[in-house]
Amino acid sequence: MNNVELAKKVEGYLKGSAAKAKKFEDLVAVSISLLSENNEDMFVAVREGKILVDHYAYNDNNCAVEASAEIIDKMFSGELSFDEALANGSVQVKSGETAKLKALECLVPSKKPAKTAAKTSAQASDKKATATKKTDSAAKPAEKNAESVPAAKPVEKKDAPASAPVAKAPEKKPASPKGKGKKK
Questions:
Q1: Which of 37, 78, 103, 178 is the most buried (most CB within 10 A)?
Q2: pTM assigned to the model
Q3: What is the per-residue pLDDT for 174?
Q4: Torsion of CA 10, 78, 66, 69, to 10 degrees
Q5: Predicted confidence (pLDDT) per residue in 3-15, tens digit
Q6: DSSP string for residues in 150-176
């Protein structure tokens, strides 16, 4: 992939981030030297709230980096985090502030790996199955004994405020058979 193709892809990835770009107060300009046979350049910048991406070097940059086209593509598509790319050495900062490169990451669309999404849905199914089992086991004692206390406890826990202790006794107090509340 050459710098012209990559610039178009990156521009497409960042297209939906115009509102986020308007929040940038300072100029962020990152010049990217692509590791290839032709040593091509491109840049990504946010200036006056607008995202600029083009296929040439940006000489008045805040940060200059060097990486392969594939790594830049993965970073701006959301497949590879900027921190991870810097930590593993696949992106090297040649000059300027690393923070300026990292500032662009908030413009990148977030992607969840397919394995994580499948795992999350499997966990949700497990939770539903567990909840069903708990409901079924709580209902069985109630069927056997109408005055069963365990069936009533889960309802009290759900109605209780989050800050209230779970072991707290109900507010109703039995009436005293002696003087009905008179103190001597």
A1: 103
A2: 0.59
A3: 57
A4: -60
A5: 899 999 999 999 9
A6: TTTHHHHHHHS-TTS-TTPPPS--PPP
